[in-house]
Give the backbone structure.
Amino acid sequence: GDPSEIDYVLAWKPPKGEIKRYPNLKAILSLGAGIDHLAEDPELPSHIPVSRLVDRCLTQGMTEYILYWVIHHHRYFGKYTEISASKEWRQIPQEDARRRRIGLLGLGELGRDAAEKLANFEYNVAGWSRTPKDIPNVLSFHGPEDLKPFLNRTDILICLLPMTTETHGIINKKNLAQLPEGAVVINCARGAHVVDDDLIKALDSEHISSVVLDVFHTEPLPSDHPFWWHPKIIITPHMASLTVAHSAADYVAENIRRV
Ligand code: GLV
């Protein structure tokens, strides 16, 4: 068709330079929670509004993913799988959820929902964000000075930060060293939040006990990447929360109405 007849772009990761081909756009609507993949396009027209997707199913999916892996580690289900594989009958002492310190990096649309639901499950929940947040039963840490004390009290770290110049590579050697011995790291934000080599070293030194990764610097994760065969890394293919069409459509329509 005629590119000048296009009013709205709905996109996940369009090729760079694609969006500027439409001269009469009124808005660019991301089909995901983030907009970093759109902002990366150096030729993205700067006068057109860009919206992220804030959607019930996207939020619910992320919270499910996080609850699943928190419970997995809290109740040692990974260890029980290993134990039963060797036909052993052995119990591991059960911990009090109130003593399990969960830390969410990022308390935006997704982080807040996960924090609230984890707190409802009685976990000891804290979050770190740019500005202070007031969420019932969730300890709020904010700004660069609070990062260290936040990490010091976090047994299970979950990254849900947006990708910005400040958050790029935040899961690095220095910050991993601030986590208590045996901590777990879950990244469901962006691959570039993690310095891959630092994470592997922290696992190999047993400072970090287990890692769950949904996102990677290069996606699909290249078949020769060491993450694939690391015994302490669980990999999922950027599916922590997928856009559900029937639900997202309502939000997209509403954003078009607003424009
Ligand atoms: C997925 O990663 C998203 O931004 O929705």
In short: The mean pLDDT is 97. The chain has eight helices and ten strands. The radius of gyration is 20 Å.
